[in-house]
Amino acid sequence: MSLYHLNKLCYDLKRAANRDAYRTDPDAYLRRYQLDEGERSALDARDYAWLWDHGVNFLVLITFATQNGVGGLTEMMEVMRDQYAERKG
Question: Where are the domains of the chain?
Fold first, then answer.
């Protein structure tokens, strides 16, 4: 696991050029970073709860979430709550 690369990926989305690159080709953007299969799966699934549980900084996680259509902190918390609930099944 590369917590540094997960955080850097999310942080780098603060730059407009990186946001454009992510929107244009998410797979190519993610390949820029050294991610393992679990990290890549969590990013592809937009599993914010998994990312938080594995140490991604909450502030940069919001940046990643907003790039995926989440409207901000409150909405991301709701999504995470639902993700945790699904795990408990």
Answer: 3-88
Three-state secondary structure of the chain: CCHHHHHHHHHHCCCHHHHHHHHHCHHHHHCCCCCCHHHHHHHHHCCHHHHHHCCCCHHHHHHHHHCCCCCCHHHHHHHHHHHHHHHHC
44-86: pLDDT as tens digits: 999 999 999 999 999 999 999 999 999 999 999 999 999 999 9
Q: Does domain 3-88 have CATH number 1.10.700.10?
A: yes
Could you tell me the pTM of the whole model? 0.90
Q: What pLDDT shows up at residue 77?
A: 95
